[in-house]
What does this fold into?
Amino acid sequence: MEQKFIPYQQKELTASEQLATSKAYYEELNRRRSVREFSDEPVDIKVIENAILAGATAPSGAHKQPWTFCVVSNADLKAKIRAAAETEEKQNYSTRMSDRWKEDLEPFGTNWEKPFIDIAPYIVILFKRAFETIDGEKRNNYYVNESVGIAAGMFIAAINNAGLSSLTHTPSPMNFLAKVLERPENERAYLLMPVGYAAKDAEVPDITRKKLDEVMVHYK
Ligand code: IYR
It folds into this structure.
């Protein structure tokens, strides 16, 4: 297939505008926190739709866009997902996770209970699409984990930008999600993200982020 090319119009900023906007954007993202206590306050579905559109602008291998964002607001489905997630997590915390792992998590106060799945107005389950079936032929997608990871990051940033909170939750194994949501065989659950307002009394651990010189190496 012949791909048509068109001129690209790059946004134009002066050097000082670049400095100011890059700093402001960093500060905006630096306010984001993973939240485990949500309010049940409703959120306009259009905000979620816009955040999904933002996530779905991510670059992807050969532009295959190998993602599906499933949005669950149905209470019965949320209850089913919570029950299945808690069953897996109970196993994780009691037998599957190493002592070192549990020690590392201890400061964050996580456990097998996942009430946020019922409480948050939306649960967004991001599926990666391992392959597409075209004319009855299975075609693998490319760099699926990388592509879907970037889409997740951009979605999370968009949710934060809209004044909402999210949590990246990875109950494992996650295959129950494809079953509960009756996803096609090419889709595998990648991340589960409750989305909504943080509870009024929500607390987050008092953590700091690595300094620039710990995360950046400049080869001049
Ligand atoms: N998936 C479990 C455990 C968990 C693991 C890590 I690493 C975290 O940063 C947080 C939680 C859970 O969601 O509780």
Observations:
- The radius of gyration is 20 Å.
- The helical segments are 15-30, 45-55, 75-96, 99-105, 116-119, 144-161, 175-180, 212-215.
- Residues 120 and 153 are 19 Å apart (CA to CA).
